[in-house]
Input
Amino acid sequence: EDAVTIAFQTGVDPSKVAQADGDYEKATGKKINWRKFESGAEVIAAVASGDVPIGNIGSSPLAAAASRGLPIQTFLVTGVIGESEALVVRNGSGINKPADLVGKKIAVPYVSTTHYSLLAALKHWKVDAGKVNILNLRPSEIAAAWQRGDIDGAYVWEPALGKVKASGKVLTSSAEVSKWGAPTYDLWIVRQDFAQKNPDFLKQFVKVTGGVFDRYNKDPKGFASNPANVEKIARLTGSKPEEVTALLPGNVYPSLKEQSALLQKPFVKAVSDTSVFLKSQGKVDSLQADYSSYVTNQFINAALR
Amino acid sequence: MSQQEHVLPVPTAPAARQRTWGIRPLAPWQWSSLSIGSLLLLWWALSASGLVPALFLPSPAAVLTKLQSLVVQGYMEATLQQHLLASLQRMLLALLAAVGIGVPLGILIGVFPLLRHWLDPIIEFYRPLPPLAYLPLIVIWFGIGEVSKVLLIFLAILAPVLIATTHGVASVHSIRQQAALSLGASRGQLLRHVILPGALPDILTGIRIGLGAGWSTLVAAELIAATRGLGFMIQSAAQFLGTDIVVLGIIAIALVAFVLELGLRRLQRVLTPWHGKAL
Amino acid sequence: MSQQEHVLPVPTAPAARQRTWGIRPLAPWQWSSLSIGSLLLLWWALSASGLVPALFLPSPAAVLTKLQSLVVQGYMEATLQQHLLASLQRMLLALLAAVGIGVPLGILIGVFPLLRHWLDPIIEFYRPLPPLAYLPLIVIWFGIGEVSKVLLIFLAILAPVLIATTHGVASVHSIRQQAALSLGASRGQLLRHVILPGALPDILTGIRIGLGAGWSTLVAAELIAATRGLGFMIQSAAQFLGTDIVVLGIIAIALVAFVLELGLRRLQRVLTPWHGKAL
Amino acid sequence: MSLLQVDKLTVHYPGQPLPALQQVSLGLSPDELLVALGPSGCGKSTLLNVLAGFIAPTHGTVQFDGKPVSGPGAERAVVFQNDGLLPWLDVAGNVAFGLKLQGVPAAQRAAIVADTLQQVGLADAGGKRVWELSGGMRQRVGIARALASQSRVLLMDEPFGALDAFTREQMQQLLLNVWQRSQRGVFLITHDIEEALFLATSLVLMSPGPGRIVQYLRPTFSQRFLAGESVRAIKSDPEFITLREELLASLTRTQHEEAA
Amino acid sequence: MSLLQVDKLTVHYPGQPLPALQQVSLGLSPDELLVALGPSGCGKSTLLNVLAGFIAPTHGTVQFDGKPVSGPGAERAVVFQNDGLLPWLDVAGNVAFGLKLQGVPAAQRAAIVADTLQQVGLADAGGKRVWELSGGMRQRVGIARALASQSRVLLMDEPFGALDAFTREQMQQLLLNVWQRSQRGVFLITHDIEEALFLATSLVLMSPGPGRIVQYLRPTFSQRFLAGESVRAIKSDPEFITLREELLASLTRTQHEEAA
Ligand SMILES: Nc1ncnc2c1ncn2[C@@H]1O[C@H](COP(=O)(O)OP(=O)(O)OP(=O)(O)O)[C@@H](O)[C@H]1O
Ligand SMILES: Nc1ncnc2c1ncn2[C@@H]1O[C@H](COP(=O)(O)OP(=O)(O)OP(=O)(O)O)[C@@H](O)[C@H]1O
Ligand SMILES: [Mg+2]
Ligand SMILES: [Mg+2]
Output
């Protein structure tokens, strides 16, 4: 049969090594066209167009897509976002505690997981989001605006995160926000029609990913400092090799066993929480009664069997 | 429209009845309405047929409903009117700057070869650059305020205006320049009284093209820390698959741009009635 | 350049010596090189002075080093040459389509008022739309293949070409059309032998403007699941603040665009030497 | 029977106080050389534009060969007061243009062009660009273009206005020869009374404000020339001189009246 | 002393086999009405373009008032063979253009314009757009524009070519009156021998291939007209007729030679 097109993003995670090695092709026996995308919204558009059955997005775009009833399912998590995304405030901005954020300019790429995390953190701190000047900037512009001193803080990911950390301090990170009940994820979605017709493909796909995660979790430092791994990840994502080593430990990569449990109630709850949050922000018009049909551990379980 | 209506076979002669190709049972505006109507019909048919999922092409009815909420409650903390106003301000400011700088500069470039050779590489360097590519540099140099946004739109309008003006200067019949010079026109007077009006038809067309380019840079410009603006609204909504808002934003842009375009065309007809006349 | 060199005060008369404003101690290309040289100098000075951090404006030396690695090892699985080739192919395809469709359509619109009234709203509707706004719709309808990318660039080039062509048609002296018609020109012949060549100066200028617009849409177009292309390269690097690669991409685009522009200008001089002659 | 016929023609340019032409009726038969003479602004070019099909009458009718004229056509070649040459073609290309439109093969075309250029005294200028020509040369290219076409009628608006006396006489004689040989009807506008008398088989004198025909003559001098009589002899014929003075007086009278 | 002077003037258009002018020397004094006569393409317009400063000589010098001419200037007004009117101005605006450039106040300008338009017979046409004019009207606007300017020299390229006999004579007389009153030097190109003889105080006959002066005359008919003699009387004077025939013969001879 013909090739499968998969939309990936440039998030750094161990499975990129398998992707670079062609492990997915070997395991599934199919040719795979890997296509790089810049944002979750674009991946979703591509998935919706039918050209792309499988795509890699964050949990915010997933919630938006699910709330609008796109026929997709989350079948695999590629990372629980941790220290890799953080809210940094600039030295000299006068922000020492969350309450100081009021009236300050905080930049965040709208709709990204950091946007959700920022608002969740503010809610946790009981800071009125309406009183914080939240600006929409892409990471590269965040770095530039930071340099000029135009913004007082930013909730952003690497490598911009590293640049702003150099002259600022971390107020909180997604690892912490996750503990406050607003976890964010990187994950794989699949079109439902494709999932029904190709369970075996997905099973193999999950299996390969689980394999690399296990390899990573066994020895995170060793994996991240292995030049071969680093080179492969850098090549696929376009990041600089020296950054990859630092980026990898920023997220948590749950094993398939953990995911089998995660991709049930807990994940459904995270998606519906995010959706409720989006609704409250006026970003989506209506909510689904139940988000469980957008999440499945069927393929993980199949892989584990 | 009467001046430009009858290009063939009798373009100039404004005699009582003129020959046109084909019959015209309908008035121009009727034709145009028909065309817009058919567009709307197509939209309705596409979304009603279910060929395109509502997620990507919401039905006219859904968009209308959304329009109401946008006008009343707004989106991203601003109503549609406020978004529109913010964008319109940026556009007009950029347009003003682009015309104010582009037309004189284009004329000077057209007239002074030296200046052309000097500026040419610079203009030709910036002209093809994708705004998305140099956005960080704009931010670093001009910050995240209005200046950066207007600058980006300005740059998009400037290039067509400049090129069209230079082209227009080259189109000014040399005999008209000679006539003015031998009536004692100074360089400045020549520019003011002969070259500028002679190039005017082209300049106005350049502005029309430039304005289109400016609008289509709006989203990129409003990527820079905007809190209001049609581009900002569209872009925010697009991220959340809010296609209804995207469609509304698109329609709003199209409408405003269309009104400006019609104004420019009228200006062109009023200011340059001689255009195309063989003299 | 000699034809357009001397716009004032003696634009036509190609007599042996002609009067120009000012002196010209240097040849045109020397002036241009000087201008490019000063740009480079400015770059070097800016980055050496530390006024702009290397993160946003890498030094010429750093970029040069990166160039070597880009040419030899490449970035994102393709060398600079391959990225360039991919983008160039898209551009040329889009240009071909835009000229192939825009010029005939523009001529027909200029000639048939009916067609104009019909198509005008449609053209004016799409023209100001920011590509970034309708990117998702393009993907939905045309997928993530080459078609979508070329389409986006095509749309950017089409508008200026269309408008300039229509403008050009209106610029064709009516007496020339009358002359051809009374020599028995059919409608087709009139279009082919009088209106097309008469509009040619404007059409070529429209293409020049359009090409610039096309290039600046490149990044947006290559946001769509590209695996190669200068826009894709720039975009990928920008995500990781790889400014050296961004700068290289920008320079590559500027260079290629400049070469195309020079070619078009030469074409314009060769094809329309009568432009601006008072006849 | 008239080949080209206007009846009760009125042309009123929009926005103008007076019609440019009012109630003009006129016919041109295939063997006729009809000359229109009249002061500047009396509507001569307007009449020609109507005959050519460039302007539709405000009132009245125009017919060619019994059928209403609905636009320009190959059967009515025009020489313009402003040459109307195509600058993207060289001189030969301009002269060949009508033939090319009609699909005349290249070789035949080249022969006709060479011949016609020779006749108008531009044998060497075929390769020149239009903007390299002097005023008189350009006018002759315009004449050559019309002559080379295979029209049944020639409509000429002051075709010899920019020519020196010698060339002008040559062109007049060329026109008479072409007219005799080809049996094309010719409508010619001139402001030169001598030229009008010498060429015309029919001559209309027009008057402005609004434009109309005030006099109709049928001179015979062109037939005498074609029969072999010398130009000098004809032009010094007392009949010629009398007519010339009469016409001049008429013209002067109408213009004095108008001025008053 | 000459106001405008060319010495050993040669003009060679690039790419042309022959120079358009070769070794032409000529002077125009402030009280002179210099007429250039010659066949089409002999370089008359080229000479005028050099005098006007539109073309620089390939060899030789041009001087105005003893200073080298380096370009066009207000002291040398030009009437073009192709009118060169500005279509964005109406008729009055075109005529007023030179005055406006010189900073003449609006009221004074309006008076001059009205007067000049009256003189060229276009008193009512001031508000018309340029493209609403007939050929002859346009030419007269061009003449009016030059007359209204405050130049010291008038350079006129076939200024009366598109005019009917009556208007033409009026314009000739107008020119003579203006010339006499204003003591402007006039350089005028014509292809009409009678016109040349009637107007000229100096007359050069030019010949093509390459363009040069072959004859230089000093007719006195214009002085006689200004002294009060009637036009008819002058033009039927045997001296006038003889000179006219001689010039025609000269012209014919040079053109025959050339053709051979
Ligand atoms: N711009 C030009 N480029 C090349 N050749 C030219 C140019 N202008 C004129 N010529 C040539 O120079 C010669 C003289 O031209 P010019 O216009 O001076 O003639 P003229 O005496 O004014 O003729 P006419 O009475 O027909 O107007 C002609 O052979 C013409 O072809
Ligand atoms: N396009 C036009 N619009 C308005 N009025 C016009 C137009 N063309 C001509 N006229 C007017 O119509 C009248 C007749 O003009 P026309 O050109 O027919 O004169 P003509 O007899 O050819 O004169 P000439 O000998 O000067 O060429 C003039 O008063 C002129 O102003
Ligand atoms: Mg006329
Ligand atoms: Mg001449």
User: Anything to note?
Assistant: The longest helix of chain E spans residues 238-259.
